Amino acid sequence: MLNKMLSNRLYRLLALSAMAILVLGLGSCSQDKQQTFGWGESDYYDDFLWCKHTPDTLHRTLEFDLNRDARMFLERDVMIGLYSISEDGQAEPLSTEIAQLFVEGKPCLNNIIIIDRNVPPEADAAIVFNPKAPNKDFNWCFKVVNPGDLDRISTPESTYDLQGGSPQPEIFQFDIAKHGRMNPLARTLMIIGCAIAALLLLWFLVIERQMYPRFSALRLTVEGYDSYLTNIPLKGLRRVVLTSKPQKQNWLNRLFTGKILYKINSCWKSDIVFSPRNRKSIIMRCTAPYEADARTLTKNEQYRILDTESKQKITINL
Fold first, then answer.
1. Global pTM value
2. N or C: which end of the chain has fewer CB within 10 A?
3. Band of the pLDDT at 105, cuts 50, 70, 90?
4. 85: number of CA atoms within 13 Å, CB side?
């Protein structure tokens, strides 16, 4: 997750007394994620469908160096706690409701590290944010909670007397961040949804009307076969079919290509199809036994179709 951000120790704590010396360092980060924070950056997102959030574990290596006297005579454990630094510079114990500190995979009670004479030279330290923690950049520090048997402690900046009643020192400060982002699955679906919506918008506003033109505000009147008469408003239709065969346009085709009107009557011997040409004319197609006196029908004109079998005439008015 995090790339190694530092090849050398960031800080060293030199704790001196007549009996014991402790050197504590913060070693290299063991995650692979590239970023600029001193400890690390955790990404958080809400659960969505089957894509559940797994909290990032931000690792660092703590390095301890106890001299021989410390290994032999350190009786009371040293306690170092994780603190949050407020905007006014005050260090306050970091609540586990914000983040949990782990050492060697075990949670530290109240985010406090216990150091005894048997402490290993190196220990894996990890911080895991609580999902309810705010998404922001934080400034935290490690601070001596209980010095144990140590008299004083030195940092690169100053030396502190641990047994003289002075405030316990901040060992070092570091930056860490929790950033909220959109669930990857939700983000992917949103991108796909936006792409589909854009394509649909392009289809309905531009492409569909070019590929499947509609009739303008025209009216078609068909009369013939003694008693047959129909008056059809054409506006908005893609096609009109006079047929004897029961036919029905499916809803998907109607949605994406426009409505086709089927006028079904047993008098028709083959299909007669009307389709748009421009605002003032339409195109008519028919097959045997019908013969039409025109293929292009113009507004306010009358046309005829001859049934060559029965010799009956069908009148078309537009």
1. 0.60
2. N
3. confident
4. 15
